[in-house]
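Submission checklist for the structure archive. All mandatory fields must be present; incomplete records are returned to the submitter.

[x] Identifier: Ganglioside-induced differentiation-associated protein 1
[x] Organism: Biomphalaria pfeifferi
[x] Residue count: 313
[x] Sequence attached
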Amino acid sequence: MASLPSELYYWPSSFYSQKVLLALHEKKVNYKSRIVNLFEHEVNEPWFVRLNPNGQVPLLKLGDKFISQSDSIIDAVDQLNNAPVLVPDSSTPEGQLTKQWRAKLDSFNVEGLTFGVLLNPELAVDEIKVPSFYRMTKEEFRVKSCKSVERLEKLRAQYPELKEAYDIKIERYKKRGTSMFEKSDTVAFMEVLEKLLDEVEEQLRKSRSENIIEHWLCGPRYTAADITLCVLLGRLVSIGLLSKYLDPAKRPALIEYWNQARQRPSVQKGIMGVKSAVLWYQVRKALKKVVAGAAVAGGVVAIGVMIGQKYKA
């Protein structure tokens, strides 16, 4: 497939946005980017819901086509050029293994773990890297969820043509608000992750024994399965859980893997640089407000000067 104009709608710390960012960097695809602020509910704005009825990021505009869902986007991006191949042919052993591991890693409830730890920070064993202005207590989270539902109900009434999309989002927020991400549920997610990463460790050891020179999760090549695993490990860094799972006695192959993966430019840009990307976004946003305020103030001063001159005349 020939290269097409690409524009990515995303949020830097979104798990699924990061997967797509890594794919775009690995494939060296030139793209325009547009940040959609999750914390200010821009995904709920009518302009975005019209583009993506799911009201979620990432969303990729490829030519004249909009593609949602991170795995679908990665599959499409992989077809843009021949190298490197992120999604091997599923008729090959490597392709079958990649497909299996993508599904297995995607089945883990990352949202449950993320919000669960942020709302129960005593579960973290390392420093939580999420900026403090995005953290909240359970009560603050409950109140925010209720306000989000109220805001969505108003939008649904205001834009009846988008009623179906807003109905789905309202139910999603209600479910999230009532679950509250209890500590016991979060501990259960952590136990599931223990078992999953034990399987990852076993697969990495097997891959290392079969591929002497270079080895990744599914073979000698870095694939879409590695993208998901890297983003998952990056998420553990953000929520202060990495050292719990990167135990040298239990998972030496995973530690070696993560040390190797962190050297990749795509991981450095899409995962390790997420905090600075969010902070820089906030700085630019603040600067725009300052500039806009200065422009308004300048206009008021100019009007005042003209009025003063008129009265003097």
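[x] Structure attached
Curator remark: The first strand starts at residue 6 and ends at 10. Strands lie at 6-10, 32-35, 59-62, 65-68.
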